[in-house]
Amino acid sequence: MRWIRYLFLAILADSASLAQAADVALHVTLNPSVQVEAHSVLLGDIATLSGGNGDSVNRLAASPIAPAPQPGYTLHLSRDEIAHLMRGLTTASVVLDGAPAVSIETQTTTFDSAAVVALAQRHLRDSLLAVGHTLDITPLDPSPPLALAHGVVDLRPRPIQDRRAYHQMTVWVDLYLDGRFDRAVPTRFKVTDTVATLVARRDLPKGTTLDCNNAAQVPQDVAPLDVAALTTTCDSVHARLKRSVVAGEVLTVDQVEPNPAVHQGERVAISVAQGAVVLESSGIALEDGLPGQRIPVRAAQASDPILALVVAPGQVKVTDP
To answer: φ and ψ at 234, to 5 degrees?
Structure first.
């Protein structure tokens, strides 16, 4: 039975060793300042760990405790804050010593922002509706290098909603690092948009019907205009002025309206349908009218005006409302 006693003593010794190991505290010694590369700050980045079980020490050292600061910024964590962040990471007894606080910065690398400008410039040119136009897109600001954390850079320009050229435009490019959004970078451009547009040959009063005698196509930079310019040819504009313009003025879409099919005071043909019978007479238009509009007309030898539908130049039709 002597071997049973030896076995019992051995078990007691192993139990004592295990109990002693369990009582060994983990020592976490904080460093006063560190630099990190990853997106998260690990406990092992900011402290030296010792004591306890080797596997538990390694697991604890690999535990993230906070997001890494943006490049150029410093994250300050006090010893009490670190103790709070460590709660739940281990069941072992922990002795936290070393520096009273840790200053954390992110290691950076330099990224040439010329790549951002070139992408934004190309994206702006591709987005603008400028068929037949000559575009000149010039960066307005210098492009200093960007300080970024280490990682794979992915540039994604934002969609441009308004596709008309303006004299100054900003393009936003979202920068991702390792698939995670890092920042948005704006780039301003000066834009010239040269296209043949209609220009008044002379001072023109309101109501003037535009044609090649009073308007000409001249190359103009239309980017500074708040409203789109008229880029049709002078023989196909089919419009009249809503207000007076001066000689040399660029004509825009808000300055014109379609030529009416019927003019006020014009003699018109009036048709009236009564079943299968169509009666025709003549009269005078009392207002301008576009096709599809109802205008008052006065039939010949009639005292009261009637409403008639404009159907074609010089022609109206009386129908039920």
So the answer is: -65, -20
